[in-house]
Structure formats: structure tokens, C-alpha cells
């Protein structure tokens, strides 16, 4: 078995031409594969500009771009499974902050990364936008301190609503 085949063994969504979209939150959609570059630290970043969820009170749709960045350890998230997982929030009723924390928790559980951040930039509704930011650094590593510093300084230059 080649290194690439070992790396993708067990993935069920990548290359599957019969993709089924799940309309209710489902963390079991997430799949991981081996990081073959464990000899160095590096960032992987995903931008998901089509995130939707529902307000748990009004059932009105909320729209956001989700930014996920992480430094992998032994495992990485497979991108198609991540897309389908994020899509599964479509009919999920939760506050913006709770959605971002769920995403972070699910990715930490899946991969046990060295570092992870999830930032939701939601479209304004009722004249206000909510942009929750969640991060994590593996305890007992340099990434724990990076997470603290990044959280403390992540929004030093706030954007204006017209430059989103």
C-alpha cells in the first residue's frame, strides 16, 4: 500500500460522486486523515463563505463566512467532510457564539490539533453583526501560549462594516 493510500484509507466522502447533503447538525460527517508532514508546524486555513444556521428564537436564517485555521498534529480534517459538516448547520438553531464553539469542539475532538481557531463573520441582521472568535492551543505546548496571545490581540484593528 502506498503512503498516499495509507493516508486516505477510511475516507468515505472524498471522491464519492453520490454526495448526500445532511440538513441537521451532524459532527459524525467529519473525517480525518494522517498528516504526513509532522516534522514541521504549518497552518491550514479554510474559508467557508456560505455558512448558514438558524436563530434559535426567531428561526430566521443567519449567514456567515467561517474562517478555520489550524496547526495539525498527527491528523488533519478532510475538506469535503468539513464542507458537508458545515452545511449540516443549515437547519440547526443555535446562537452564533454556540455554533463557533461547537465547530471548534468538534474539530478538536476529531484531530487533536496543536492549534485551532474558528472565526465566524456573520452578515448584519437588525443593524448589528456578531463575529465570534474561538481558539485553542494544546495544553502544555507552546501553542497554549500562542492561543492566549492570539485571543488577547485578535481584533486589534477592528474592521468597519463597509470593508467586510
UniProtKB/TrEMBL annotation:
Signal peptide: none annotated. It catalyses: 7-aminomethyl-7-carbaguanine + 2 NADP(+) = 7-cyano-7-carbaguanine + 2 NADPH + 3 H(+). Substrate binds at residues 77-79, 96-97. It comes from the Bacteria. The active site is at residues 55, 62. Coiled coil: none annotated. The keyword Iron does not apply. Keywords: Cytoplasm, NADP, Oxidoreductase, Queuosine biosynthesis. InterPro entries: GTP-CH-I_C/QueF, NADPH_dep_7-cyano-7-deazaG_red, QueF, QueF_type1. Pfam families: QueF. It is an enzyme of class 1 (oxidoreductase). Its main location: cytoplasm. Gene3D superfamilies: 3.30.1130.10. One of its GO terms (molecular function) is preQ1 synthase activity. It is found in: Cytoplasm. Its EC number is 1.7.1.13. Pathway: tRNA modification; tRNA-queuosine biosynthesis. Belongs to the GTP cyclohydrolase I family. QueF type 1 subfamily. HAMAP family: QueF_type1. Catalyzes the NADPH-dependent reduction of 7-cyano-7-deazaguanine (preQ0) to 7-aminomethyl-7-deazaguanine (preQ1). This is NADPH-dependent 7-cyano-7-deazaguanine reductase. It comes from Scopulibacillus cellulosilyticus.
Amino acid at each position: 500500500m502506498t503512503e498516499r493510500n495509507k493516508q486516505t484509507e477510511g475516507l468515505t466522502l472524498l471522491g464519492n460522486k453520490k454526495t448526500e447533503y445532511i440538513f441537521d447538525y451532524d459532527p459524525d460527517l467529519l473525517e480525518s486523515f494522517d498528516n504526513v508532514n509532522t516534522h514541521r508546524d504549518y497552518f491550514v486555513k479554510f474559508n467557508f463563505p456560505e455558512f448558514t444556521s438558524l436563530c434559535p428564537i426567531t428561526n430566521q436564517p443567519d449567514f456567515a463566512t467561517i474562517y478555520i485555521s489550524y496547526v495539525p498534529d498527527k491528523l488533519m480534517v478532510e475538506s469535503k467532510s468539513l464542507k458537508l459538516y458545515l452545511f449540516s448547520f443549515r437547519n440547526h438553531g443555535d446562537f452564533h457564539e454556540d455554533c463557533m464553539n461547537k465547530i471548534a469542539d468538534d474539530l478538536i475532538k476529531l484531530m487533536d490539533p496543536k492549534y485551532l481557531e474558528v472565526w465566524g463573520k456573520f452578515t448584519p441582521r437588525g443593524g448589528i453583526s456578531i463575529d465570534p472568535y474561538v481558539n485553542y492551543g494544546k495544553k502544555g505546548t507552546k501553542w497554549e501560549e500562542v492561543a492566549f496571545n492570539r485571543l488577547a490581540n485578535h481584533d486589534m484593528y477592528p474592521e468597519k462594516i463597509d470593508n467586510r
